[in-house]
Every structure is written in structure tokens, then in C-alpha cells.
Amino acid sequence: MTSSPRPDPGSAAPASGPTWSGPGFAEFVGIVALMMAVTAMSIDNLLPAFPLIQNRFAVADANSLQLLVYVYMIGFGLAQIVYGPVSDALGRRKVLLASLAIYAAGCVMAMVAPSFEWLLASRVIQGIGAAAGRVLSTAIVRDRFAGREMASVMSLIMMVFLIVPMLGPAIGATMLLLGSWHWVFVSMLALSGVLALWFAARMPETLHPEYRRPLSLAATVQALGTVLRTRVAIGYATALGLMTGCIMGYVGSAQQVFDTGLYHLGSLFPVAFGLVAGAMGAATLVNSRIVRRLGMRSLSHAGVTAFTAVGLVQVGIGLHYQGQPPIALFLAVLALNQFLISFVMPNFNALALQPLGAIAGTASSFLGFYTTMLGALCGWLIGRAFDGTVMPVAIGYAVLGGLSLLVVAWTERGRLYRAGISG
Q1: What residues contact 339, with CB distance under 8 A and at least 6 apart?
Q2: Residue 169 — very low, low, confident or very high, per pLDDT cuts 50/70/90?
Q3: Which Pfam families does this one have (predicted)?
Q4: If phi over 0 gives left and psi between -120 and 50 gives alpha, with beta otherwise, what is residue 9?
Q5: What does the DSSP 8-state code read for residue 257?
């Protein structure tokens, strides 16, 4: 008995047209962006609550509060390795809705946490639940799009997604005005509920029937072998993980940098955080407009080169001001680097998945696990090094940017700044 031929893994049906019964393009982008936004909301709107949580549970070392970010990312990273293979077998819809139930359970556990350790365990469960959004958002886009079109769509999704970091701390601060840090988790629960209802009502199954894979260890190992043998996938995933480490190092230490540990901005912390996130949002919009013309490779290669150069400028400025530059100067340089990183991350993500369309869910799962764990480790190293100055963030950006550039050079065998057939 012969199996039906599989579609070309480098192509996919558009998210419109006679074969598509789902939402229109704008709504499609909105739903998928919200899937990713749950992850950002779960980190960013908790940052203003760190001092209250520290007081409530008598946490002696302020740097230990960063564990609320990093244990979430550990659960988030580890769970990704499961969701992809399961979604390739059962479909995207069932897996996402089940994961949101896990996320909601973590929110409720956090609201009733009697100790800091319990709260950390709740954050792990939240991360496990949120992980499906990271895996399946990418897989759903890859189900519908390919090549530069996929990179353009991912940039639009990232632009919407980045509105959440702009608003997240402000939403968290608003929740604190209600009287307790517990309300921050209420806002997370509400957002996940909106996503569950919207996704269930409007998003059809996007997994191609020809791409369904048996849920078996042998099939999963076979898919993993394909990923590991694909130089482009591993190379760009590694570079993406290093760049993710920059983001995680900044986010993990942002509350201390902007508020309690250095600049003491107080209620203006959400404003400063939002300005930096706004630079990222603007860049992703620009990227979505020009990536189809310039290509993912040339644009991302130029972006990571410029990012590394600005990282070195950050180090120089930090040294000149003994680690405490004027807040306006620090924000300007940091926003520039966040602007540049937005030309890198969505394109690296699309390039890593481009040759793996036939195993998009499993590939997204493995690569998401790898990039998240690498990013969390690098971010933790940057965050734990916070010493009351901007130097750990500046050095982290310069070093990780440089390493990312070297990895990309290895991936492309030294041929940088060129447009490939599909990139």
C-alpha cells in the first residue's frame, strides 16, 4: 500500500483563497499574535510587582526575584519539546486549548501562593501552559505561509506581540492599584480566557492532512534527526537563542535597572520600558514592509552586525560613566539596539523553519525548546550579574551579538549579506 504524496515542504497554502475557511488576514495575525502575547504578558506585567512580592515573602536578595522570570522560561522551554510532536499528530487546535487550561491552573495557583517557593512552582506551570502558544503560533504561520511571505507575516505578528511589552508593566501597575500583586495574575488569567474563546470560535485546524505524523517515539526521533542534520535550522536557531538571551537578560533586570537598583524611576518605570519596546514594535513593522524586497538573509545579517556594533558602543558609554550613564542616553542606545534586534529575530526564526515545512510542528517544538533554554541561560547569567550598573546588560549585548554573528557566518559558510532563493 502506497502513501499519498506529501506537499513540497518549502511551500504552503496562503491564509486566504478558496481552500481557506478561517479568519481574514488581519484577524489571523491578531489571533496568532495573541497566542504569543500571553507569553510576554506573563513576564512583563509582573515586573512592577517585584518589590511587593519581595516584601510579602521576605526575599532577602533582590536578584532572586528574577527567578520569577527564569523559572517561567524553564517550564516554557521544556514543555515546547512535547507540544510540537503532539500537535503534528493531533492537530493545532486541541493542543492549544488544552495548554491554555494548564496555564489557567498556574495562574490560580499563583493567586493563592502561601510561599515564594509555591509561587515559583506556579510560574513553572504557567510556563508549561504558555509554551504551546510559542510552538503553535510559529507552526500555524508555517502551515499557511513560506519563505519571505512567512517572514513578513511573522514580523506583523511580532509587531502586534510587542505592543504587550509596551503595555505590560503599565497593566501590572494598574493591577497593583487595585491593592495587591494577586491582581496581576488575574489579568493573565483574563487574557488567556480571551484567547481561548477567540481561537476556539474562529481558527480552524491549519495542519495539512498530508503532514500529520504518528505520535510515536520513532517518528519523533526521525523528525529530530532531520532537524539536527539541517545546518540552516540549527545555525539560525542557535543565533536566535543567543539573541533571545539579550532580551531575557534585559527583561530580567529591567525592574532593578529602571527602578529599585539604579535609576529609581518609580511610577515612570512602565513608561521607560514601553519606550524601549516601542522601538522594537516600529522595527518589526518596517521589517514586514521591506523583507520581501531585500530578503531575510541580507536584512538579518545587517541587523545582527549593527546590533553587535551598538552593543560595543553601549559598553564604551557604560565604562565612560562608571556604569551609570544619564538615563536619556542609556534609553536612546538601548532603544536603538532593540530596534535592530527586531530585524534579526523574526527573520532568524523564519530561516530556521524554512526547510522544515513537512515537520513544522515538531521542528518548531525542538527549535523553540533549544532557543528558549539557551536564551534563558544566557539571560540568567546577565541578570544575576546585576551590580547596580548597566554594565552587565551592555556587555551581554555585545558578547551575545558577536557570538550570534559568528554562528551565522558558520551557518552560511562565510557568505553573509546575500539573498537566498527563499530567503
Answers
A1: 279, 280, 282, 283
A2: confident
A3: MFS_1 (PF07690)
A4: alpha
A5: I
Grid cell listed for 408: 551565522
pLDDT at residue 171 is higher than 80: yes
Instruction: Give, as one character, the DSSP assignment of residue 413.
Output: T
Q: Mean pLDDT throughout 107-120? A: 96
Amino acid at 151: A
Distance of CA 75 to the CA centre of its chain: 14
Largest CA distance in the chain: 72
Selection from 293, 300, 291, 248 nearest residue 408 by Cα: 300
Distance (Å) of CA 318 to CA 93, 105, 264, 286, 340? 48, 43, 18, 29, 19
From CA 212, how far away is CA 80, in angstroms rounded?
Answer: 18
pLDDT bin (cut points 50, 70, 90) of residue 8 is very low
Question: CB neighbours (10 Å) of residue 344?
Answer: 29
Cβ distance 19 to 13 under 8 Å?
yes
